[in-house]
Design a protein that fits this description.
By secondary structure, the protein is an all-alpha fold. The chain contains five helices and no strands.
């Protein structure tokens, strides 16, 4: 279940909005307004870092450590398609 602000942020993030990517990385990490998902947090924080964000490095690395090998492989494939 996603909150309205998360749905709006996803639309903006998909269009390349860096602030929306940062917002989503934090929301998915914390599970606020969405089901907690370290995969989604890692995905959005990696995209944001690639676009120049500087404040998500710790969150990104922590989320990565929480992923199983299978989850990591899946998300890396998604990221290759997005980067």
């Amino acid at each position: 279940q996603q909150s309205e602000c998360v749905r709006v942020a996803e639309t903006k993030a998909i269009s390349g909005d860096l602030i929306a990517m940062e917002f989503l990385a934090r929301r998915f990490f914390e599970g606020r307004g969405v089901d907690q998902s370290f995969q989604s947090s890692y995905y959005w924080s990696t995209l944001a870092l690639d676009k120049g964000a500087t404040c998500l490095t710790s969150l990104n690395q922590f989320a990565l450590k929480k992923l199983s090998e299978e989850e990591r492989t899946s998300i890396e494939s998604d990221l290759k398609a997005s980067l």
